[in-house]
Specification:
With 215 residues, the protein is an alpha+beta fold. The chain is 31% helix and 22% strand. Keywords: Hydrolase, Magnesium, Metal-binding, Nucleotide metabolism, Nucleotide-binding.
Length: 215
């Protein structure tokens, strides 16, 4: 290099002031909107549907893999940083099913009534064998954020929310398996909580707090 040559200083990659949220799930979008508003981020989070981005093909075998797949998909199409959520309900007595297949457990994606009914039916033999034992379950949320589509170091955050699974749905709030998810310490289901109370303790609320701390 000659004495007159100059080189550009290396800089750390920065985030744009606009992120894409890689989800078209109405229930999740509502929760994320509240959670991001409470976090007072200096960014605009745009749902991928507003950018005409279809859902990614979720062919991973874990929540982490699927979250990264969705984040890269949205980032590649939009050219923006992207954040993705992969979440579901794990019931140890069922080998952690429905797990990553929670949204399509009964075969039809996003049909909460059918998914809940199948879960209740799958647990009936276990309840019959152990009638006095509560059936444990946990909601899992993994968030993945990528600065660009090929980001080699995605930011990963995880939240776990422990509870029990009821036989009969209770409460008309929330979405997914919320009406069956009983919280003994609160004597309520996730579907019975206000949005504010749910966000303060839920798996998704926990994961977003972790993500923000890493940012």
């Amino acid at each position: 290099m000659s004495a007159t040559s100059t080189s550009r200083p290396l800089t750390q990659p920065t985030f744009h002031n606009q992120w894409v949220l890689a989800s078209n799930n109405k229930g999740k979008l509502t929760e994320f909107k509240r959670l991001f508003a409470e976090a007072d981020l200096d960014v605009t989070v745009v749902p991928q549907g507003q950018l005409d981005i279809d859902d990614a093909i979720e062919d991973g075998l874990s929540f982490i893999e699927n979250a990264i797949i969705k984040a890269r998909h949205a980032s590649r199409i939009s050219g923006l940083p992207a954040i993705a959520d992969d979440s579901g309900l794990c019931v140890p007595a069922l080998g952690n099913a429905p797990g990553i297949y929670s949204a399509r457990y009964a075969g039809e994606h996003g049909n909460d009534d059918k998914n809940n009914a199948k879960l209740v039916a799958e647990l009936q033999p276990i309840r019959a064998e152990h009638p006095n034992e509560p059936i444990k379950g946990m909601f899992v949320c993994v968030l993945a954020m990528v600065r660009h589509a090929d980001d080699p170091l995605p930011i990963i955050a995880q939240g776990l929310w422990h509870g029990e699974i009821l036989e009969v749905p209770l409460g008309d709030g929330g979405f997914g398996y919320d009406p069956l998810f009983w919280l003994p310490e609160l004597q309520a289901t996730a579907a019975s909580l206000s949005a504010t109370d749910k966000n303060s303790i839920s798996h998704r609320g926990q994961a977003i707090k972790q993500l923000l701390a890493q940012l």
